[in-house]
Amino acid sequence: MTVVLPTPAQLRSVAEQCGLSLTDDDVASFRGLMQGSIEAYNLVAAMPDEVPEVKYPRTPGYRPSAEENPRNAWYRKATVKGAAGGKLKGKTVALKDNIMLAGVPMTNGSSTLEGYVPDFDATIVTRMLDAGAEIKGKVHCEHFCLSGGSHTGSFGPVHNPHKMGYSAGGSSSGSGVVVALGEVDMAIGGDQGGSIRMPSSFCGIYGMKPTWGLVPYTGIMPIEIYVDHTGPMTATVADNALLLEVLAGDDGYDPRIKAPKVEEYTKALGQGVKGMKIGILKEGFEQPVAEAAVNESVREAAKRFKDLGATVETVSIPMHLLGGAIWTPIGTEGLTQTMMFGDGYGLSRGDLYSTSLMDFHRGWRRQADSLSETTKLFMMLGTYINNNFGPRFYGKALNISRRLTAAYDKAFGDYDLLLLPTTPMKATKLPEPTASREDYVARALEMIGNTAPFDITHHPAMSLPCGMVDGLPVGLMLVGRMFEESTIYRAAHAFEQIGDWKKM
């Protein structure tokens, strides 16, 4: 593409947008001064981009039929075989559809991206293939990942693996379903407000949101850099730990990564919890939408850790109940400026930018009425706040988030882990197509109260299934110190070994 000098009319329009008043002489002067910079832009335009090599052959795959895909979990089936050997040899993986798989279409749950094909692989994709994994394709996620329910994607709702007509959780909805059904061994999810852990809770699988900056987000469509996380969703703790071993570590691109502490997480398996101190987070059971049966199931599970030899005590962190409010300006204004008006990336970070995605994503402006109701809501709110107050609330919320981080860290001075319900409720019914906007939004956001705080404090947190209520799974969340995923795996594995969670 070529950049041309703005016409006098275009320059006057831009000046007005910037709050400037220009005379005819000003217009002529500024156009002359811009000429050298325009030439520089065109020099950049003519240079080849710098993107990673695609190492493993693949085809675009296909959209599975309704008969092949009854819960609408899959977006695209496309097999990519990795190296002949490695830690993940024999393992099959599904990718959330905000993760770039070169040559295979990607939508991030939105019809506005239909037709986009990435031109390079996400770092984690290359790492899994190098480790011998076989990628089976892309699975549906929620519209631009802005929902904790599974009903907002442009291509229809995703159904719970245990009960048709019920939510699979979001935004990594398809990831949770295909793992729970055994269609793949592993899946990758993303988590900005709980989007790995919420579908793991609703579907009855193990989902780890790692410490922020442990796993590269490179080649994954961002929402907001401060809360972007990606991580493993699996049917077993052992597979979860194994996959994180492959995913973790600096890739030289992601500015989120600052000297992460990387471990062999599988070494935590089988170590038990004897001598461990676990704090039951009182406020985690006090969400306004909490279901008594879910709380009771999690409390009963907590007793099992005590039976296994851990010290289990109640701890109070009142600020936890403010975590969702603190998250709101960061998530809302971040996604508005970065994901939407910033064409998926925004500015001011040393990232690996996908210019092909940025170019294609700009098209949402011509199709804005087709965006999900949650996307419209957040974008309008974020724009209103920015127009009237600027970014001060984003900045203040981020500042306050450090106080929330300190509150959890103080508790970690006494406890190895915090324990609470992942979601305050089990899976809810999917909204009817005729549901009101109010119901649509409520089913998308009502479950994030316990998960969102740890996206802004960056602590690792894992959901594990701990029981069933009315035929639907209940998720228990373990939260650990920064970069101490091994401690979480140690406890989760010990719990997994005591028996079938469906019968607890």
From TrEMBL:
Q: Which InterPro entries match?
A: Amidase, Amidase_CS, Amidase_dom, AS_sf
Per the record, a Pfam family? Amidase
Q: Which GO terms describe its molecular function?
A: hydrolase activity
| Keyword Cell division found | no
Keyword Transcription regulation: yes or no?
no
Q: Where is the Amidase domain?
A: 78-488
Q: Give the record's keywords alphabetically.
A: Hydrolase
**Which range is the signal sequence, renumbered to this chain?**
none
Instruction: Write down the PANTHER family for this protein, in alphabetical order.
Output: AMIDASE, TRANSAMIDASE
**Known role:** Hydrolyzes indole-3-acetamide (IAM) into indole-3-acetic acid (IAA).
NCBIfam families xrefs = PRK07235.1
Which protein is depicted? Indoleacetamide hydrolase
What organism, scientifically named, is this protein from? Bradyrhizobium diazoefficiens (strain JCM 10833 / BCRC 13528 / IAM 13628 / NBRC 14792 / USDA 110)
